[in-house]
Amino acid sequence: xxxxxxxxxxAIRPVLEDxxxxxxxxxxxxxxxxxxxxxxxxxxxxxMTVEQKLRMWDLLVKVGFKEIEVGFPSASQPDYDFVRALxxxxxxxxxxxxxxxxxxxxxxxxxxxxxxxxAKRAIxxxxxxxxxxxxxxxFGLDKQGIxxxxxxxxxxxxxxxxKNPQTQWSFQYSPESFSLTETDYAVEVCDAVIxxxxxxxxxxxINLPATVECASPNVYADQVEYFCKHSRYRDDYRVSLHTxxxxxxGVAAAELGVLAGADRIEGTLxxxxxxxxxxxxxxxxMNLYSQGVDPRLDLSPMDEIIAVVEQCTNIPLHPRHPYAxxxxxxxxxxxxxxxxxxxxxxxxxxxxxxxxxxxxxPCDLGRSYxxxxxxxxxxxxxxxxxxxxxxxCLQLPRWLQIDASRKVQAHxxxxxxxxxxxxxxxxxxxxxxxxSNDNALRNFTLQQNNDQQHSVDTLTLHFDLQSQDICLxxxxxxxxxxxxxAWQERFGSHVEILDYSEHALNTGTDSMAMTYVLVSIDSQxxxxxxxxxxxxxxxxxAVINAAVQSVNVTEISASAQLSAAV
Length: 566
Prior knowledge:
The chain contains 18 helices and 14 strands. By secondary structure, the protein is α/β, with parallel strands linked by helices. It folds into 3 domains: 24-313, Alpha-Beta Barrel (TIM Barrel), CATH 3.20.20; 334-422, no CATH class; 439-565, Alpha-isopropylmalate synthase LeuA, regulatory domain (Double Stranded RNA Binding Domain, 2-Layer Sandwich), CATH 3.30.160.
């Protein structure tokens, strides 16, 4: 096995003086052409059935494509039949133009026009290979020979279109492997093709494909800008790009190509295509969207788009696929979760989107915020708090967020996996609410005595501990103060409330109350949490849950038995 970089050479870039594309900004979406039904389909292990093609067609129309390459009807009977199904079934909207691909051979061009008979509008896309490798090793022709093929193909397309004037024709030519072709030669060939078409009055397109991505995106942009600057007939046609993803830069190359002068982009939904795939229209369109540019495509039903593409291609979507994957808006990192939680808390509904780690609002693509923060052993307090707040309406104070996240993290480490909201709730419930069952408040009475000087509340309270009835009595400025004084009198421990918060879990008269207390007992801190339909009962239960952690249970039970004997 050899792994030797010396067998390769860098791509040749054109000499381009005073390049303009680096200083430009993408502020308008290009024209889009979907090639899912042709390039995307021919790359599948099992090509789409007619039924799958129709489903994909309906999706492409719904998303908003106005130009759709529907097949290679001269090379495939199923493609031919599908084109006829669209035309004969009147399935092509008035504002949508279909496109077919064909090699520059007369019998194939004739077959393509036969397939398109009766179409209101159609683009005939003719191509031939122009790069040195195929000129020399595949066709055995020089530059003039290859150009003659292109010119003759263009003439045949022009003549067959003239025989079928009932259709509004557009013509498109591709110098296949443009990115591997000498750029000045590509200009020469394309100008010769345009010369055959420019007097027909038909809309014209020159497509510059990176059939194989062979260089960095900036080199491709240089090629596109050089082409646009040197073409004799540049004002007579739209420049289209068709990039592939061999280097993983298909989207970047297309974006820079638009900066360099292109008007139109061919690609597929989610990037399906030959080898590593075509340019992903979803990613490029959403890149524009994230910069405040109207992509002129509606990608809001993202889950439907994914479902249809997966069903038609039998290719599952990677969970990290930009914008569309299951995990792309998900944060497991604790610091990320905390930042997202804080930003979402202050993000106003109609304000400019400005949330850390989220380039767009997931809701724009039909994703819920519940999927944004997910918990594993790397997660922090912000993530745990977010899940508990969004799924269970808990508004945890910061000190409880920290304590709860440690318990959740320990559980995640023990299970070595992600925790779903139900599992997180179970950890929280076992840690903080189950003690309420062990130390359940039986009953209490609270008597308020008011005079002109001050008010004093007297509390008598019974709660269970190890099946023992513990009775506390005390007075204070409010129910909690009375309880802490009673506890100190009974057990000799100084109880100080460091923090207290409470909230309703829902609205209405039957709403449950949640109470959180942080107490200091003999300089040690303890946490108590409780829920009850009565806010005072919830507060007392929370203090009890915290305070019992500071006392030896055996001592409490012995004290209770002694009191009973007396």
